[in-house]
Design brief:
By secondary structure, this protein is mostly beta strands. It has six helices and 34 strands. Bound molecules: CU-O-CU linkage and copper (II) ion (CU) (2 copies). The site of one copper (II) ion has 6 residues, from loops.
């Protein structure tokens, strides 16, 4: 039911913007102070040409992002180097698109870590402006978290430490530079970071080439095939091209067996509901690791930054079958069952045992909502201020946060909520059980307009300042919907 209400909210927004057409839409040329509400229900006067790139569906093969090789393997850590640099990348066939990248690829290289083994990444900034990296979902020390004001200057480099003391899961890294992260991430500063747990090998889930990270996002292109970024226009009516691992509506040949797809919605703003034409997607993992038990889905809602690991059994379909993963925006990727492959995987009925939650010592309320003048999006009635600590948490304690989206105006404005440093469990949604797929660890939750979500987290072993925010990136980076907590001894 919640999913349905959420879809209705999206529908309202999409309809409001949809009348403006695809080819050209008026966007606000005003300063951010005028634009928060406009972003959702009104438009200014500037015109930018966005075109449908016109790539025939399923004409490009979907790539799998390359895996980054360590430059050094120390006794206690794998060491990597990754450059932040501009690059001309091929997204549309035969077109060079200017992008901002980690390592030169539009979808950055995948870093593969192991539970309990440290990863050190030396990021070198070869962009001509400050940038950084945030390991989304990572339990990391504050100075390696990519705090928005803790950036790497052009030409400089910085070593980040990722301890990987958390369950195996699908994380991603992306820029978090204050006020710039929305544009930076939109232009390509994003990649996968997978934590593998050797204790999970005995589960015999699909692995190796049958374990595929799948980054899905939207984008807008101009006539020259360049990415168009405009924080002040409605992304639902302007970013109409979907990319799967950085290519528009590709196909992906598969064998007739089970595959694991680690689906990430890397869109700045758009929530997707994915469907496989009624075919089952067995969800085995969420943001923070394996679910206690697989959940059968035919529909999968992911708001920006959320992940879902699903197993699709192509062995149930004859060679020659083509299955389309689609969404509100049309087809995303087509899976073509092209060959016989030996099946050696399974999906056990029990995947993980989640520890009992320690009792919470504190309950807090967090409110997401428009500023009184409807010019900004705020958390608890305040804009982000790096000099103000909004919440102080004692290290190692457990808390329950009730997050409420009060923006039921304009047909409802959707938000989600992401907490750095920790993974949490979803306790309830307005007292009702969490959504399917929310039975495990999460770090980002969708919060439909006018609803609330209660989450419970234990604030581990690091101290310092960490942000929490709506992960609709224009909201957090341009419209101030971010706040911070300080973890104290
Ligand atoms: Cu995906 Cu503040 O992060
Ligand atoms: Cu994060
Ligand atoms: Cu928001």
């Amino acid at each position: 039911m919640l999913e349905r209400r959420h879809l209705l909210a999206i529908g309202t927004l999409a309809a409001a913007g949809g009348t403006l057409g695809v080819k050209a839409w008026p966007a606000s040329a005003e300063k951010p102070a005028k634009a928060a509400a406009n972003h959702h229900h009104n438009h200014g006067s500037r015109t930018t040409d966005i075109v449908d790139p016109g790539v025939p569906p399923f004409s490009i093969r979907m790539p799998v992002p390359r895996v980054l090789r360590p430059v050094q393997q120390r006794a206690d850590a794998d060491v990597y180097e990754l450059e932040l640099k501009p690059a001309n990348v091929e997204i549309l066939p035969g077109v060079r698109t200017a992008a901002l990248t980690y390592g030169g690829d539009f979808v950055g290289p995948t870093i593969k870590a192991k539970v309990g083994r440290k990863v050190l990444v030396k990021y070198r900034n070869r962009l001509d402006h400050p940038a950084n990296a945030h390991l989304h979902g990572g339990h990391v020390p504050a100075d390696s978290d990519g705090y928005p004001l803790d950036v790497i200057s052009p030409g400089a480099s910085r070593l980040y430490t990722y301890p990987n003391n958390q369950p195996g899961t699908t994380l991603w890294y992306h820029d978090h530079t204050h006020h710039m992260e929305a544009e930076h991430v939109y232009r390509g500063l994003h990649g996968f970071y997978l934590i593998e747990d050797p204790r999970e090998y005995k589960l015999n889930l699909p692995c190796g080439e049958f374990d595929v990270p799948l980054m899905i996002r939207d984008a807008a292109f101009d006539e020259a095939g360049q990415l168009v970024f405009d924080a002040y226009s409605d992304p639902y009516s302007t970013r109409l091209t979907t990319l799967a691992n950085g290519r528009p509506q590709p196909y992906f040949p598969v064998g007739n067996r089970r595959y694991r797809f680690r689906i990430l919605n890397a869109s700045n703003h758009r929530s997707f509901t994915f469907r496989l034409g009624g075919v089952e997607m067995l969800q085995i993992g969420s943001d923070g690791g394996l679910l206690p038990a697989p959940v059968s889905r035919t529909e999968l809602l992911l708001s920006p930054a959320e992940r879902a690991d699903v197993v699709i059994d192509f062995g149930k379909h004859p060679i020659g079958t083509k299955l389309v993963l689609d969404s509100e925006l049309g087809p995303i990727v087509r899976f073509d069952v092209t060959r016989r492959v030996r099946e050696d995987s399974q999906v056990p009925a029990v995947l993980a045992t989640l520890p009992a939650l320690p009792p919470a010592t504190k309950e807090r309320q967090v409110t997401l909502g428009l500023s009184p003048d409807q010019q900004w999006f705020w958390i608890d009635g305040k804009p982000f201020d790096e000099n103000r600590v909004d919440i102080t948490v004692k290290r190692g304690t457990t808390e329950i946060w009730k997050i409420t989206n009060v923006d039921d105006v304009f047909g409802g404005i959707e938000h989600n909520f992401h907490l750095h440093l920790v993974r949490f469990r979803v306790l309830d949604r307005d007292g009702a059980p969490p959504l399917p797929g929310e039975s495990g660890w999460k770090d980002t939750v969708v919060i439909p307009a006018g609803t609330s979500v209660r989450v419970q987290a234990t604030f581990g072993d690091y101290t310092g300042k960490y942000v929490y925010h709506c992960h609709l990136m224009e909201h957090s980076s341009v419209f101030q919907m971010m706040a911070q907590m300080e973890i104290v001894p």
